[in-house]
Amino acid sequence: MPPDPRPSDSRPPDSRPSDGSAPTPLDWALVIATKDRIEALRVCITLALEQGRPPAEVIVVDASRDWRGHADRIGGVMAAHPGVRFRYLQAALPSLTVQRNQGIAEARAAVLFLLDDDSFMYPDCAERIMAIYEADTQGLVGGIQTGTAAHPPRTGIEAGARKKKGSRMIGKGGQKRHGWLRRLVMQRLFLMDKDALFIPYDAPAPLSPVPAALAGQDVVPARLFQGYRMTFRRQAVLDEPFDDLLRYYCPGEDIDASYRVSRRYLMLTAPEARLHHFTAADGRIDRFRTTALSALNQAVLLRRHAADQTGARRRYFALMRRRFLAEVLKDALSRRFDLPQARGILHGRTKARHVFAMPPEALAEWYPAEQDRLVRG
């Protein structure tokens, strides 16, 4: 069973005053893992610095070939903010999880905004998030996910090209009149929902209620986060680092990490603390490789973390059968007649049989090279 999310001696002392006084205000850091998306990164950092409650630190871990040139450009943005601690690091490996952990290790702030480089915060986003952490004087809450906004926080933002969306047919028409039906189709048929795709590592457990100290806050309990809008107490992601066996784009890394943190801490979503996910085009791998990695990563994470290996394996292959059918439909509706996403699922499912048969030590040696073969072709 997962541990009870109560405060422990590992929690940051500044979140738990013992004398009944008001808590010391917490500081926050923007920690960004990036690769080849300098225009979006520049906007992301600019909007973070313009927050009503600005960051104490900005830390960037860049896997781009021209990371020094990018550092110079972002350094120009940071020059107007000498009071903000700034670190621009070359990535140890081209891996979202490794880069996130590298940034976390460099950070000093109590709360880390582990956003994507194309996540554009509304001006009051950080202020709303930090008010919740500070109201949680017992340190029960380990992570808070921001809300989302359909449009950028202001007009005229130049952040490079956007990623091309999927089918123009999926989800079009009658969205307001038939919103419930559209959501049902997306979740049940196309499996476009993280809860539908995730296989828990432990026996199912109900979400913990919102603590009484947060009764006046606009929050809802959560367990699984989306990577572009995550914030955590620094101690929470030191207790449960991102899984650095994953490489490159690392699909599923956000769900894995947030689930593991949720076994120790309470997790919340703050709908009114909004940001816009721009979904920049550069730096992404193709659909076949992304889908294959998502299927393979899930098998690897289950092999590494699931308590019931037999049950996890059975549920995984049942899910892959459903995912294959969903990806065939999505490819067909999007007129991708080479079926890249469906082929990705087949590739991942085939390799997953090897994953579940492998001892964890052998898996740790084999999987980085396997990802390299897949991505580099």
Automatic annotation (TrEMBL):
Stretches assigned to coiled coil: none
Q: Where is the Glycosyltransferase 2-like domain?
A: 30-146
A GO molecular-function term, please?
A: glycosyltransferase activity
- Which SUPFAM superfamilies does the UniProt record give? Nucleotide-diphospho-sugar transferases
Protein keywords = Glycosyltransferase, Transferase
One Pfam family linked to the record: Glycos_transf_2
Q: Does the keyword Transport apply?
A: no
Residue ranges, compositional bias (Basic and acidic residues)? 1-17
Check the record and name the Gene3D superfamilies matching this protein.
Spore Coat Polysaccharide Biosynthesis Protein SpsA, Chain A (3.90.550.10)
Outline the segment boundaries, as ranges, of region: Disordered: 1-25, 146-174
Record-given protein name: Glycosyltransferase involved in cell wall bisynthesis
| Organism the protein comes from | Paracoccus sediminis
Q: What is the lineage of its organism?
A: Bacteria, Pseudomonadati, Pseudomonadota, Alphaproteobacteria, Rhodobacterales
